[in-house]
Specification:
The complex is a heterodimer of chains A (319) and B (550). With 319 residues, chain A is mainly alpha-helical. In chain A, helix 1 packs antiparallel against helix 8. Chain A has 14 helices and 1 strand, in the order H-H-H-H-H-H-H-H-H-H-H-H-H-E-H. Chain B has 550 residues and is of the alpha/beta class. Chain B contains 14 helices and 22 strands. Chain B starts with a helix and ends with a helix. The chains are: A mainly alpha (319), B alpha/beta (550). Chains A and B meet through helix 3, helix 4, helix 8, helix 9 and helix 12 of A and helix 1, strand 1, helix 3 and helix 13 of B.
């Protein structure tokens, strides 16, 4: 299937199909959750401010892609390189950074402020269903607003434009990566929104989390790389054994310090390395390489934050 | 009041505990999901460029079995700048090959685990670390001391230097194959394909080769130095062979008159003088028992058999003859591609059409050339001896001629470098050949690589012909894994942006898409604020009108 129009149709239909299937599944599992989902999605779609923000982001994106085309006109750029660069523009990062937090900042904080949360929580619907409905609506909306960017790339590769027939697989894997990252950030946004009745504070915490995972590991990376750069550096298990063993043997075992060092080396650093969302996108998803370990990171992370949101809502019952 | 506070405290504690548990579950799941046993990597790129071939996977298994550790250091420079289109394209190609190499190495590290360590150096930023590493690598003579855009593969004390882009990719460089014409648009280089896997895995495999084959270098023939760091010495070749895992020993051939049994290769580098009959017998006997010999001779200005030996006895028994005249080739005139001339420089030969022999095939694939000067022609004796085969290895182009010594001193070379007027004088000339001698016992054949010009001296060819020289020795000792590892080949297809396409795309991206979103926003606003169709219709009409005009 090399006709870009058919490809666009297939991608569009596929994305909408997945969204419809998710909604259908929710309806099957929880009818009340589905009602929440439908209500939230309608609210998002009929929010003019959302479309205006989107307009500005796409305008910014447009100029960035024009810059990319100018670069391609000056020097050689191959198709895969162009695809990865197209997906990895600053506007993409901006969309990932801001949009999930903005989409979810109202979900619970606004309801808390207006007092409608009490009504919602006393309705015959479980907390989990409310959380799932709201998150799914935001996730579907997030997926939909990214869809034009993906379809545009296919259109640009068509005969009327670059006649380049961009490889579709890396485009789809890039889209999958964006949706997975978005799903995690949206879950975090739901959680932060459930903790406070201040929308701005909720959005700010969400943005900070996104910023930390997108760019944070880059600042920690030089230190991590230095460790990885030494080929004969002991393994993590060996580090733990050395630190604990030596100190106990010498009799100057500083329990807390040693344990902290072991925790840092065996748990924290590996996790920070694996939680580098920017690296996942730039070096894996956008290049057409899927790592099931990373997919587990997003799916389980999203689940954890949705669970925490439910626990956070439950907190009100303790008062 | 107190009960309420306690409940709130318990509620918050509940949330904190839940958060700790959730994060712990998350970490555990990620840790488990990242374990090699549970992790799967799915490569969806059309050319599967992140998937390594079975040879490389077998190599990783071998590394794990043998417990060998490989370290790969990259010394890359960010390719910025360029003023002419040629430079811009050349730098972009370097950048792309660097990127593909880094991706490839990440995959190697992922698949080989702890067995392969990859360290990237930015030679402009990490000056101290680079200096330290170069010192640890022994100065990197192959890269001229400054390792710009190279990667060094090391296994123990042995190492191989690969240059970016030429050792890892095929680049179509018109500057090397076409002559510039005044007024014509400058042709630019193009990245054809990336063969990093074959190059890197091949380098690792060759470094893993067992044993240290012994190369005996014949002495006692007034040859040039093997150790002095001067232009006409062979010290660079010796160092490169040692880095490659060869053991170098000297052999006073005329005194010993026999070649030791542990000799993997006997090398005669520019011998000046006749080989005695006993030595000739020893070499032929060595070849007959499957021995390997490199004979590199060259033309010199001084006339006579001592300075320009033709080794008639050896040549006769092995079915070849070395001429006495200097091989020259017409030099293309850059200003006028249809005109070629002779003169000084005609004796410096550039062999562009390399043969498909295992020694030259990898160079041919990467569009490399061989350079040789002061060469003499090799002729095949007709008919050759029954058990001997002579195969040309390097041949000049069709405009090669033989320049005899001039009766009067017309050039510093003592030969007439002007091209001969008659067409019959021009023909391709063989300047390197392979002689195979079938053994009496039916074992592997003896092989002699004959090179009749300067190719491997420090200042005369080695920087250009290093890979050729190493391939000769690797091939002779059957350590030719370097050229036999097959890997995935990434074919580069470039995006062409013409001005009309650029204009159309720009219009789509910065006019139509934002306009469509504006219309949606207006439509939503009209629906929300009860204006219903009013604003929506205005928006649709605006789009229609703008479409008409744009």
């Amino acid at each position: 299937m090399t006709d870009p129009r058919l490809q666009m149709l297939a991608i569009g239909a596929g994305a909408l199909g997945v969204a419809a299937a998710a909604a259908g599944l929710l309806r099957l599992v929880s009818r009340r959750g589905y009602v929440t989902f439908a209500r939230e999605l309608a609210a998002l779609l009929f929010q003019p401010v959302g479309w205006i923000v989107l307009l500005l982001l796409y305008l910014f994106r447009g100029y960035e892609v024009v810059g990319l085309l100018t670069q391609a006109g000056l020097g050689p750029v191959d198709r895969e390189q162009f695809t990865a660069a197209y997906l990895q523009t600053s506007s993409s990062l901006l969309m990932l950074l801001l949009v999930p937090a903005i989409l979810t900042m109202r979900s619970f904080a606004d309801e808390k402020r207006s007092g409608s949360l009490e009504v919602l929580l006393t309705a015959p619907v479980r907390d989990g269903e409310i959380v799932l409905g709201k998150w799914l609506a935001a996730a579907v909306y997030f997926g939909l607003i990214w869809l034009p960017a993906i379809l545009l790339l296919v259109l640009l590769g068509g005969p009327q434009f670059l006649a380049a027939e961009f490889p579709i697989q890396p485009v789809l894997s890039g889209y999958l990566g964006i949706v997975l990252v978005g799903a995690l950030f949206l879950a975090v946004g739901c959680f932060t929104s459930s903790l406070t009745d201040n929308q701005l504070l909720a959005a700010l915490i969400g943005i900070l989390f996104a910023f930390g995972t997108l760019f944070g590991p880059r600042y920690v990376e030089p230190f991590l790389q230095l460790r990885a750069a030494v080929p004969d550096a002991p393994g993590l298990g060996a580090t733990a054994a050395r630190v604990l063993g030596d100190e106990i043997w010498r009799g100057d075992f500083d329990g807390f310090g040693a344990l902290l060092e072991v925790f840092r080396d065996t748990v924290l650093f590996p996790f920070v390395q694996r939680a580098s969302v920017g690296d996942h996108l730039a070096n894996w998803f956008f290049r057409g390489l899927l790592n099931t370990g990373q997919i587990v990171f997003y799916v389980v992370g999203t689940g954890c934050f949705l669970f925490l949101t439910t626990r956070s809502l439950d907190l009100r019952r303790w008062r | 009041m107190r009960a309420g506070a306690l409940r709130r405290f318990l509620g918050r504690s509940n949330l904190v505990v839940a958060a700790i548990l959730a994060v712990a579950v998350w970490m555990l799941a990620v840790e488990l999901g990242s374990r090699p046993r549970f992790k799967a990597l799915i490569d969806v790129t059309p050319q599967a460029r992140f998937t390594v071939g079975p040879d490389t996977l077998a190599l990783f298994d071998e590394l794990a079995t043998r417990g060998s550790d490989v370290r790969i250091d990259t010394f890359f420079v960010a390719p910025v700048g360029g003023t002419t289109p040629y430079e811009v394209h050349a730098l972009a190609i370097i950048g792309r090959v660097q990127e593909l190499t880094i991706d490839m190495l990440a995959r190697y590290r992922e698949l080989a685990g702890e067995r392969i360590a990859v360290v990237h150096y930015d030679i402009n930023r990490d000056v101290a670390r680079v200096r330290e590493r170069i010192a640890a690598l022994g100065g990197l003579r192959e890269a001229g001391g400054v390792p710009e855009n190279v990667l060094v593969v090391s296994v123990g004390s042995r190492r191989r230097v690969l240059r970016v882009p030429f050792d890892l990719a095929t680049v179509d460089d018109p500057a090397r194959t076409q002559r510039p014409t005044p007024g014509a648009k400058q042709q630019v280089p193009r990245l054809v394909s990336f063969e990093g896997e074959a190059a890197i895995s091949g380098a690792i495999r060759s470094l893993l080769s067992e044993g240290t084959p012994k190369v005996y270098v014949a002495t006692g023939y007034g040859e040039t130095s093997l150790t002095a760091p001067i232009g006409d010495s062979y010290s660079e070749l010796m160092n490169a062979l040692q880095d490659e895992g060869f053991q170098i020993a000297r052999l006073e051939l005329e005194r010993e008159r026999t070649i030791p049994d542990d000799a993997a290769v006997l090398a005669l580098l520019e011998p000046r003088g006749r080989l005695s009959e006993a030595v000739t017998d020893a070499i032929v006997a060595f070849l007959r028992r499957g021995g390997r010999v490199v004979l590199n001779t060259a033309w010199t200005q001084v006339e006579g058999e001592r300075w320009n030996p033709t080794f008639p006895e050896l040549a006769q028994r092995l079915g070849f003859a070395i001429g006495t005249d200097l091989v020259c080739h017409l030099i293309p005139d850059p200003a006028n591609p249809n005109v070629t001339s002779g003169g000084p420089g005609a004796q410096k030969l550039t062999i562009e059409q390399l043969s498909a022999h295992p020694i030259t095939e990898p160079l041919r694939r990467m569009q490399r050339v061989a350079r040789i000067q002061n060469a003499r022609a090799i002729a095949v004796v007709d008919p050759p001896p029954a058990d001997v085969r002579v195969e040309p290895l390097l041949r000049t182009g069709p405009l090669g001629w033989l320049a005899p010594r001039a009766s009067e001193q017309r050039s510093p070379y003592g030969v007439d470098l002007d091209p001969p007027p008659n067409r019959e004088a021009y023909a391709p000339r063989t300047v390197a050949a392979i002689v195979e001698v079938d053994p009496a016992s039916g074992e592997r054949p003896g092989q002699l690589v004959l090179i009749t010009g300067l190719m491997l001296q420090n200042g005369l060819g080695f920087p250009v012909n290093a890979d050729f020289g190493l391939n000769v020795f690797n091939w002779l000792t059957r350590r030719d894994e370097r050229v036999t590892v097959r890997g995935n080949r990434y074919v580069s297809t470039q995006v062409e942006v013409t001005p009309p396409v650029y204009d159309r795309a720009k219009s789509l991206l910065v006019q139509w898409i934002p306009l469509a979103l504006l219309c949606i926003a207006l439509l939503v606003m009209s629906l929300r604020h009860g204006l219903r169709f009013g604003l929506g219709l205005v928006a649709i009409a605006a789009v229609a009108v703008l479409r008409r005009f744009l």
